[in-house]
Specification:
Strand content: 15-25%
Structural class: alpha/beta
Number of helices: 11
Largest sheet: 9 strands, mixed
Order of helices and strands: EEEHEHEEEHEHEHEHHEEEHHHH
Number of strands: 13
Strand order of the largest sheet: 5-4-1-8-9-10-11-12-13
Length: 324
């Protein structure tokens, strides 16, 4: 499968606060919050949901096509992604804006407060998927991830008009989107991704029930944190997959992106929804054990040992041939 991933390309500035955000909040003063946190560490990492997902897919050998916009400062980042199996030929380079930036602080309970500067990401709306497809010989699936909102709408409408299957994945952008925009973005999606909280927010903003949404999408994929993932589709029993045992819990940033990378790679291999979700959960576990969204190393033997322990020999046999 030729899978294109549209979404943000960004540099992450990740900080660690040794206390708890909750201890700093005064219940009757939440309308006038003014806080600063003295952090213990700062790590500057490569990030952005589109690039994170593509990096994970590249590690699994599925050669994803990254579709997004970056600044003239993208050269080193592009070389990194190219070395790790990502097709960056469809990334638009802005002549005037810097690559987007995510600034995030994580507390001792792994709660997070973050801000996002869009920068060159605003030019993603100028990218046409037809030109991407023409360059690579067609597209089998487009994941429409968190990006410039106008770009997300344009890519969705283009997928519909050209008959390209697409996956809707609002993630961070759901907070600023209206119900009308969300309805447009999810209607007709082959896959709808969200976490458990976002699932409720989608239903609240659209005014659609869970069943009404399932009637409008092929599959609804809901990540459940440490409990794994649930996949639902109209008329069938849900598929639930748990997470492998963690060796450590270092940083949750990018865990959802890693799940999507593994899941999409599984779809590309044709191993079925349950196996694809298992690959996604295994890759997500590697990321939560690592500081940074693209700092993990996928060692095949180590990956398969842990995958086998979590999901059994039959599942491992189906997946292993695609990693060898």
């Amino acid at each position: 499968m030729r899978i294109a991933v549209t979404g943000s390309i960004a540099n992450d500035h990740l900080m660690t606060f040794p206390g708890r955000f909750a201890d700093q909040l005064v219940a009757d003063q939440l309308h006038t919050v003014s806080l600063s946190f003295l952090v213990d560490s700062l790590n500057v990492r490569r990030g952005g949901v589109g690039a994170n997902i593509c990096f994970g897919m590249g590690q699994l050998g599925t050669r994803p096509i990254l579709v997004g916009a970056a600044g003239a400062d993208f050269g080193e980042y592009r070389a990194w992604l190219d070395r790790h199996g990502v097709d960056t030929g469809s990334v638009r380079i802005s002549e005037v804006l810097h690559t987007a930036r995510f600034v995030c602080t994580t507390d001792a309970d792994h709660n997070q407060i973050g801000s996002f500067y869009t920068g060159a990401m605003s030019e993603a709306r100028l990218i046409e998927l037809k030109s991407v497809g023409d360059r690579v010989g067609g597209l089998d699936l487009v994941l429409i991830g968190a990006d410039d909102p106008e770009a997300m709408l344009r890519h969705t409408e283009e997928c519909r008009s050209r008959g390209i299957p697409f996956a809707a994945d609002f993630s961070q952008q759901i907070a600023r989107m209206s119900g009308d925009e969300i309805r447009i973005l999810l209607d007709g999606a082959t896959y709808l991704f969200s976490n458990e909280y976002e699932k409720g927010l989608i239903e609240s903003k659209t005014g659609w029930t869970d069943k009404e949404i399932l009637d409008r999408v092929g599959h609804r994929v809901t990540t459940l944190g440490s409990r794994g993932v649930r996949i639902e589709h109209g008329g069938g029993d849900p598929i639930e997959v748990g997470c492998p045992e963690e060796e450590a819990k270092v940083d949750p940033t990018g865990v959802g992106d890693a799940f999507r990378a593994g899941f999409l790679s599984g779809l590309s291999w044709g191993v079925g929804l349950e196996r694809a979700a298992q690959v996604g959960c295994m890759l997500a576990t590697l990321v939560i054990e690592t500081l940074g969204t693209q700092e993990y190393t996928l060692r095949r033997a180590h990956f398969m040992d842990r995958f086998t322990k979590a999901y059994g020999q039959e599942a491992a046999t189906e997946v292993q041939s695609h990693l060898t």
